[in-house]
Amino acid sequence: xxxxxxxxxxxxxxxxxxxxxxxxxxxxxxxxxxxxxxxxxxxxxxxxxxxxxxxxxxxxxxxxxxxxxxxxxxxxxxxxxxxxxxxxxxxxxxxxxxxxxxxxxxxxxxxxxxxxxxxxxxxxxxxxxxxxxxxxxxxxxxxxxxxxxxxxxxxx
Length: 156
Hints:
Elements: H1 3-13, H2 17-20, H3 23-42, H4 49-59, E1 64-65, H5 66-73, H6 77-89, E2 93-97, E3 105-109, H7 111-132, H8 137-152
Antiparallel strand pairs: 1-3, 2-3
Helix pairs in contact: 3-7, 4-5, 4-7, 5-6
């Protein structure tokens, strides 16, 4: 077999253990698969995964300012404005001036937004269940718990 044919065969077989044993590779490709499943699940509800995250943050607390919501999500102000503009265009959120500081906007879910959040959250949960379905039951919970710890705890 020629060198070129061998390279083509190796490329068709996918990455070898030098990649598939690396945590960064595994996390990236697991996230890509989950994002694909989630996007398909959310499509009938007319929102993206990022928009669902905004709705979840807004629903979880008292009316929040745009800035507070952006901080909770860990995104910049410009991205937050774009996401809120899209959600407002869809009738899912409403902005109004803050009662005490009219320079700030408070963002709240509309009735349609609350209904969309409920249905989209269920669809997203089902996508996550599909993603984890190939793992034994306790392993899925352990993976979620381990990732939660890694994401929420400071480095040592």
